[in-house]
Amino acid sequence: MPTTVPAYGKEAAGRLATMADVTASDGALRRFLHGLPGVDAVGLQARAATLGTRSIKTSAKAYAIDLAISMIDLTTLEGADTPGKVRALCAKGVHPDPTDRTTPKVAAICVYPDMVATAKDALGDSGVHVASVATAFPAGRAALPVKLADTRDAVAAGADEIDMVIDRGAFLSGRYLEVFEEIKAVKEACARPDGSAAHLKVIFETGELQTYDNVRRVSWLAMLAGADFIKTSTGKVAVNATPPVTLLMLEAVRDFRAATGVQVGVKPAGGIRTTKDAIKYLVMVNETLGEEWLTADWFRFGASSLLNDLLMQRQKLSTGRYSGPDYVTVD
């Protein structure tokens, strides 16, 4: 993914500008978000379940495994993280299977802001990006100046991507414009002096949003505010990414591009642990958005344990034998 956010074409910029009235006031934004079509929960869940039954044959499975590996944001977000652990994770991200150098690199290494410089140094010119959580991750309970400082520190340290969390309390209280302005301010904090900017992924924590209608509303709100990616979860709560929620977000980015000409990425995170699960998500992307979104530029997996299962399945396809978990490194 390029670290300079691509400029919108004239047509897209023009169509996006026509939606400025939507965010001109809290009342206007509320009317727009509550005017979005209601979600048919039964239909959404049935569609997600149907897509999950699609079978993938051997050659397509090999392609899907490599594609999934290339889309992973390999993540360590623990209080016990050390520079050594981060450097080891970076080495794994660049060469996931040291015995097979044809294995793709992951998309990014995701760390806390204080570990960005360590990750940046370890990754060098590998092409693997550094993503950093910010804005008082995972709860998001901090004053806006603190969140902006958190973001600027990560960008100054070299982060290519920022994963911010929204204020769920404000959103659930109906303070939509407040959430919009916060995302917009964080987006501005992603800018660098040279005119480039870190890409902004906006985390909703969908497990706390209560309804599918809220997921649709917050997806549009974040995209209107300038999100480059919309992301399901922090991975720190009981309910993280689910197929129905991800499908709903995929439909939202499809509809947003149809309305504005602006393309936005999607990142399900948390709870995606097996190759079978990852392939189900890839099928969902292909069926909903098409091949154009099937790149790390527009779709990511927020995961850590997923990579090991993908590597074991890849080895199985290559050798005909299942490898044990001791054949891959423990993160």
Structural overview:
The chain has 331 residues and is α/β, with parallel strands linked by helices. The protein contains 13 helices and 8 strands. Strands 7-6-5-4-3-2-1-8 form an 8-stranded parallel β-sheet. Helix 6 links the parallel strand 2 and strand 3. Helix 3 packs across helix 11, helix 7 runs parallel beside helix 9 and helix 10 crosses helix 11. 44% of the residues are buried.
Q: How many E strands?
A: 8
Mean pLDDT: 91
Tell me the radius of gyration. Answer: 19 Å
Secondary-structure content class: alpha/beta
Helical content band: 40-55%
End-to-end CA span: 24 Å
Strand content: 5-15%
Low-confidence stretches: 1-7
Major β-sheet profile: 8 strands, parallel
Instruction: Give the overall form.
Output: globular
Major beta sheet, strand line-up: 7-6-5-4-3-2-1-8
Topology order in helix (H) and strand (E) letters: HHHHEHEHEHEHHEHEHEHEH
Number of helices: 13
Observed structural traits:
alpha/beta; 47% helix; globular; 8-stranded parallel sheet
